[in-house]
Amino acid sequence: MIAAFRAFAMTLAVLTVHGPVWSATYVAAYQPTFGTQGVPYSGTMKLKFNHGIVSGTYVSEPVRPDPLRNRPPVQVSGGVSHGQITLTLNAPGGFTVRGTLAEDGEISGTATVRGSFYNFLARVKSSP
After folding, report:
1. Among candidates 12, 71, 80, which has minimal Cα distance to 50?
2. Which of 59, 82, 107, 119 has the most crowded CB, counting CB atoms within 10 A?
3. What pLDDT is recorded for position 64?
């Protein structure tokens, strides 16, 4: 019950800060949850939020070899509800993010890429 209230309060806070329709440009990074950490993969994600529906693009901007390097922008789709967000990147082998959307727009959680788990973090770079 308390967890449900917190999730509801988080959704209200995000809506209060941003409203039901907003957009942002993110700096996103992800690295393996297990094993060698190393330098994370990184890129720019541009997302639009429209009453719980998320759409946008991801462009890889790596500082190390990256499976999404030198590709056209990858389409992103997903949804957000009660502070929980799910994103699907239309990348080869599959790329899904499940996590939380904070009041300041930060997205944190776990990415599943080609069946492997990664820590995922995206921070707002700019918002019109």
Report:
1. 80
2. 107
3. 67
